[in-house]
Amino acid sequence: MSLKNVKIILIRAATDPNFRSRLLNEAEKVLQEYELTQEEKQTLERLSVEQLSNLSVKNTSKDFYLSDIRI
Amino acid sequence: MVKKIRLQGLSFKEELMGQKIDFDKSIIYLSLIPFETCNYKCIYCHQGGDNRNAELIIKEMSCLIREAPQLGIRSLILLGGEVLLPSVWNTTRTIVQEAYDNGLITLIFTNGSELNYEKAQFLAERNVSVALKIDSLVERKYDEITRQPGSFKKSIKSIEILKNTSIGEVVYENEKEKLVRLLFSTVGCELNYNEYISLARFATNHQARWMMELLNYRGNAIGHSELIIPLEEHSDALRLAIYLNPEQAHDFHLPCRMLSCISIHKNGEIGICPQDYDFLGNIRNVGSLSEAYKIVESKVQSNKWRNTWTGKCPIKKEGIPCH
User: Fold this and answer.
1) How many angstroms separate the CA of residue B198 from the nearest CA in chain A?
2) Residue B165 DSSP label
3) Quick one: closest CA in B to A65, which residue?
4) Which residue of A has its CA nearest to B197?
5) Which of B99, B192, B194, B263 to pair with B229, CA 20 to 30 A apart?
6) How many A-B residue pairs are in contact by the CB < 8 A criterion?
7) Distance, in angstroms, between B178 CA and closest chain A CA?
8) Reported ipTM
9) Within 13 Å, how many C-alpha atoms sit on residue B111's CB side?
10) What is the pTM of this model?
11) Eight-class DSSP state of B170
């Protein structure tokens, strides 16, 4: 279930600034730790600062959002 | 800057050049579903049969195609069944040639299994766009969905064949968008929703447009309740895939562009969206495409009808567009 792993990575990026920075700067190395498809790796390696800056946690719940998408 | 990918046949070069096409007021697409014969038995297939009776004949389809440009129709969408099967290829060839000769842009939907270089080259030279079924990137799962061993490998091979022709090339691009002739089409369901991100990336890697089709719960799909995915999960997975792959992002056209379509099914039934089976009449009874046009136009331009349907899909009533 690598969609789940993509979400885990995004949620970690939302809550851990150090991880987020590593994801932006050394994505290939960071993503080795996760079971992902080749295409998911390519997608996450191309994430921009702008895309990641849209990650947020809703105050009222434990739900995480990327832009307005629940992840 | 990331360029959004659009498909020639559903979109047009003139749109990218800034010309407005009035999809809201005109009928732009003619969709022909001349046969349902197929070599796959996809578990979600909304046709779900192999009934060869009473299929449209070439002469009937040629008449419709010749009439189409006079009505402002710009694109022919040719669906099956499987339109590249050896048993129907002569018909497909003739229809594609007729459309090309009459200035229509053709988009064909295929599973790619019977594609070879000669067929691809014939289509390429007639400005055809190709929509290829890609329901999974996992071989075992793909073959399970089609119920045809080896189908995944054939699809991958067909991509390579198409990319060796002009169908793999960009038709036109500006600073924001690219118009291409290759589309990968996925029927979203419980079996593949966790692959949406991969599928969107895969399409982008091949310079193809990725299109999601909603499961049409009829035909073979009936009895496969394991295919049904809660709409919210499907929607979240789809939106995430698009957000992470912005090349595949696009405005949802509301009302859906398929309301700018006349569909003629294999027994002559007249419909709107090719996936809608709420037929409005029969072309063999009304006699001409212009008469069918009037029927469809009066339906989709009816305020009462539009108020009920605008923004909603005739297949799924929850109001989520399928592409």
Assistant:
1) 5
2) S
3) B240
4) A40
5) B263
6) 50
7) 19
8) 0.92
9) 28
10) 0.92
11) E
A22 is written with which tokens? Answer: 């590593």
Cα(B81)–Cα(B185) distance, integer angstroms: 15
Counting Cα atoms < 13 Å in the Cβ hemisphere of B221 gives: 17
Nearest Cβ partner of B194 from A1, A38, A43? A1
Are B201 and A4 within 8 A, CB to CB? no
CA atoms of B220 and B42, how far apart (whole Å):
7
The pair of structure tokens assigned to B202 is: 């895969």
Contact at CB, A51 and B205, closer than 8 angstroms: no
Task: Mark out the alpha helices in B172-302 (DSSP H runs).
Answer: 196-205, 231-244, 283-286, 289-300
- Is B236 in Cβ contact with A69 (below 8 Å)? yes
Give A-chain residues touching B201 at CB under 8 angstroms.
Answer: 39-40, 42-43
B3 vs A: CB within 8 A: no
Per-residue tens of pLDDT for chain B, all 323 residues? 899 999 999 999 999 999 988 888 889 999 999 988 899 988 888 776 555 555 788 999 999 999 999 999 999 999 988 999 999 999 999 999 999 999 999 999 999 999 999 999 999 999 999 999 999 999 999 999 999 999 999 999 999 999 999 999 999 999 999 999 999 999 988 999 999 999 999 999 999 999 988 777 777 777 787 888 888 888 889 999 999 999 999 876 666 788 899 999 999 999 998 888 889 999 999 999 999 999 999 888 776 666 665 545 555 544 444 44
